[in-house]
Every structure is written in C-alpha cells, then in structure tokens.
Amino acid sequence: MADVEEVEVVVAHNERATLRVGDVFLKIDADQTRTDVEVEAMAMAPIPTPEVLWRKPPVLALAALPGTALGRLGEPSTASPAAWAAAGAATRKLHDAPLPPWPGRSLDEIASRLDGECEWLVTNGVLPTDLVTRNRQVAEAALRPRTPVFAHGDLQVTHVFVDGDEITGVIDWSEAAQGDALYDLATLTLGHEERLGDVVAGYGAHVDLDVIRAWWALRSLLVIRWLVEHDFDPFAPGCEVDVLRSRL
C-alpha cells in the first residue's frame, strides 16, 4: 500500500465512511455493532464475500473483489441476463443456509417506521399525499407473516459483483439478519424491474411478485428521508421517487 497514488472516497457521511486504497477497502463505522454483524455474517455466508484483511476498531480492512457491480440504481445495467440469474441463484443459496443467531426487525417495527416515514414525507411536502397514500397501500402486502431466512438485508445491485456471467462476491453485510427472502430479491431488483424475471429464474423457487412490488414501495418510502438528510438524491431519474411513481 506504500506505493498507492491516491485514496478514493467511496462513500462518506456522519455515520460511516468507506475509502479505497489500492486493492483495499477501509470501512470506518461509528457503530461497531454493525461491523460485528458484517464480519460474522461474511464468515457464515455460503457465497463469496470480501476477505477480511484486518480489523482495528473503528476500521475494517477488506480486500477488493474482482469484477464490477451488477449495476447501479438509476442506470441501465449492462450485465447479461445470465449474470442476473446467477445473482438470483446466489441469493437462493444464502436463503437456504442456516439462520444467523440474531433476529431482524419485526413486522410491527417495520410497520411503525413506515407510518412515521409516510407522515414525514407528507407533512414536510417532500412527496404528494396521493403518491404516498397509494404506495403505503401497495406496501401493505409486504407486511405479512413469513418464514425467516438468512437475509443479506441490503442487497442493492451495487453490492453484487460479477465477472462476466459469474458472481465474484457480495459486499456490505452490516444489515444481515433473519429476514424476509422477498425483501432481498426486491432490493436487488429495485429500479431494475425488467431484470426481475432473470433473477427469479436463477432463484429457482416460487416468488410472489405482488410482494416484491410491495417491498419496492416500502423500501423506497423508508429510505427517502435518510437519503435526503445524507445528501443523496432519491429524485434522480430511475431512483426511489421514480419507483414510487411507477406504482401509480
């Protein structure tokens, strides 16, 4: 690392930061419980994950994965249908693995947070009332009893790396827990609805598409305030607000 010419800031806000130094990613997190979860989840996961090089709180050093991200929210994905199917297959392998010992959020917790975020969006004039109301109705289908699985918890398209048609690894495991399988699939395909068929084909099990759509609405409603407050733009083309508009 002594010969590295530059340090790249991958993401930075008041909760955490990720830097790239050559082939090493340095993750700095104010909450070490998230890092504890990330390290333990990667050790348990039956799919490729980054190698942990060292950990000196608050810093976690991870080796870079080969390949490139499967896609980006708001941009068309250039990955092949086979690569998306491989992502679905890797997700199924994770979901079939033994559960992590820590629970995820309960349905009551999610519903309560959803109500609070919807109220904030309307009260502050961030989104029209009818857009929020309609998507809150769509989101209701996600709040149903389900059998928990080993869920990644934040399986964004940028967190899945591919080389050609092969999955080389999955990053950012700090939200991993016992959770809803369809939430992972919805997060992976958020803003890439045209790729859902490939993912489901690779997943190889029955998937309730209405619940996937419900999770698209629910996740988008939940994250808009956080994104705005951390200088991200959910109003960018193809991003969270467009996902909500597509449900009308």
From TrEMBL:
The keyword Transferase applies. Residues 41-206 form the Aminoglycoside phosphotransferase domain. It comes from the Bacteria. Keywords: Transferase. One of its GO terms (molecular function) is transferase activity. Pfam families: APH. InterPro entries: AGP_Transferase, Aminoglycoside_PTrfase, Kinase-like_dom_sf. This is Aminoglycoside phosphotransferase.
